[in-house]
Amino acid sequence: MTASNNTSTPDHKSFVQSLRVASSYIVDYQNKAFIIVLNEHFNQPIDENLRDDFIALEQKLWNQFQAAWFKYNQKADVIKSNLLQVRPKGVKNGRDYLYAANVQGISTHQLQQLLEQRWAVWLSSWGHSFSGIPYILNATDIAIITAKNLSCDKLIYLDDNNAWLDVESDLKNPNNLSLSQAKKIQTNNTEADKILKIGISACQNAIQRFHFLNIKQDGALICELFTRDGFGLLIYNDVYDELINADETCTNDIIELVNMLSENGSILYRDKLFLEKHLSDFYVMRREKKVIACVALHSINNEHSLSSQTEIAEIACLMVHPEYQSMGIASQLIQHVIRQAKKRKIKRLIALTVEAQGWFQRHEFKKISPEKLPKISNKIYDRQRNSTIYYREI
Fold first, then answer.
1. Side-chain-facing half-sphere of 135: CA atoms under 13 Å
2. Which residues contact 327 (CB under 8 A, 6 or more apart)?
3. Burial annotation 307-339 (CB, 10 A radius, 16+ → b, else e)
4. CA-to-CA separations, 248 to 110, 254, 387, in angstroms, rounded
5. CATH architecture designation of domain 241-393
6. What is the 3-state secondary structure (H, E, C) of 308-358?
7. Which of 98, 84, 197 has the alpha carbon at shortest distance from 142?
8. According to the model, what pLDDT value does residue 18 have?
9. Which of 30, 112, 238, 239 could form a disulfide with 178 if both were Cys (CB 3.0 to 4.6 A apart)?
């Protein structure tokens, strides 16, 4: 579904009724949206019968939704796509979760391509493990992880839950909360706490705005998408991060990250002389003027800094402070580096890692052997370190 101002709006009641049948989340991405089917099993074990019933029910909902979509929306096509990588929950504290799984990753590049082609994408709440077995996933996890990997600004949560309307607060505007305010609220209401918990998790995963809409309120979704003030509950991320080119003021912070993360061998140690020499290759994420993550884009054609003639470059020194890991910051850095590489007409990227193999695979990098490295890039590979090499065309 397109969320731009020139999109014709369908009859609200009929369209939203069809939407409510099938979905829990709408994620706004560059004025486009994708839909994730509702599933609230949370921490419940899923046996084989329940799994099969859920998959059959989702197919029925998909058929109903698809019919309603084509009836009320003429400017975009909708597609059902399973782009998720799953990891079975297995046994925890003696409890076997059977066919329940966690989201391990998403094929971000493929999803972006579908959105750029103006498809509205339905993401199912189930997926296959590497062995081909279907598992059930949590829609909340799917929505947050997908929005995080796409660097989305907004996550909209649709529900018929009225609990938030009954929450009493001394705040001047209790429907417009910063992340820090949301963390302090105690509602004594299980359903309202659930909404807050989801919104806080979204903002902590680098999503700037979380919107909760009561689908039973006529016009809620349309007001949210097409008016300036929006509708419902808003939780916004009040922690300001800036992604900039590194300068001399960043050197000590980068050295601190190197010292912290090189102790266990996860990254290669670089001394101050190296950092000062290659500082212009670095990009940093700062929070309140403190560097919390960084990445470098090195030319491997020669010893000089990156130039517009470089066709191959190495992604190096990808580091996130331990307190800020698993928040999507590394994904933001890698996407920024790819954009910068394209501007410089770089056609190929190489990355070496000793422990982030799965992460690079989820970001569309392919594993190659040292023998397949281009001749000019062989010098970057240390055989004693035995890193895994990843390669990506851009």
1. 25
2. 148, 204, 205, 206
3. eeebebbbbbbbbbbeebeebbbbbbbbbbbbe
4. 38, 10, 30
5. 3-Layer(aba) Sandwich (3.40)
6. CCCCEEEEEEEEECHHHCCCCHHHHHHHHHHHHHHHCCCCEEEEEECCCHH
7. 84
8. 37
9. 238
The H-assigned helical ranges of the chain are 12-22, 48-72, 108-116, 139-149, 179-184, 190-204, 220-226, 251-262, 272-277, 329-343, 357-362
Per-residue CA distances from 100 to 11, 37, 93, 197, 307 (Å)? 37, 16, 15, 21, 49
CA atoms within 13 A on the CB side of 311: 2
Rounded to two decimals, the pTM is 0.57
Q: Quickly tell me which residue has 């105690």 as its tokens.
A: 186
Q: Is 386 left (phi over 0), alpha (psi -120 to 50) or beta?
A: left
Phi, psi of 96 (to 5 degrees): -90, 120
pLDDT digits (tens, 9 = 90+) for 362-380: 888 998 887 776 654 555 5
Domain boundaries of the chain, sorted by first residue: 12-236, 241-393
Q: How far apart are CA 209 and CA 232, in angstroms?
A: 12
Q: What are phi and psi of 316, to 5 degrees?
A: -140, 170
Contact predicate 155/108, CB 8 Å: no
Domain 12-236 in CATH 3.40.50.2300? The answer is: no
pLDDT for 228 equals: 58
**How many CB atoms neighbour CB 185 within 10 A?**
16
Provide the token pair at 75.
């400017």
Closest-CA residue to 249 (of 193, 200, 301, 291): 291
Q: Which amino acid is at 344?
A: R
Cα distance between residue 110 and residue 101, in whole Å: 22
151: left (phi over 0), alpha (psi -120 to 50) or beta: left
pLDDT tens-digit series, residues 157-184 = 887 777 776 666 666 557 888 888 888 8
Give the torsion through C-alpha atoms of 262, 264, 267, 272, to 10 deg.
10
**CA 249, 289, 317, 366 torsion-angle sign:** negative
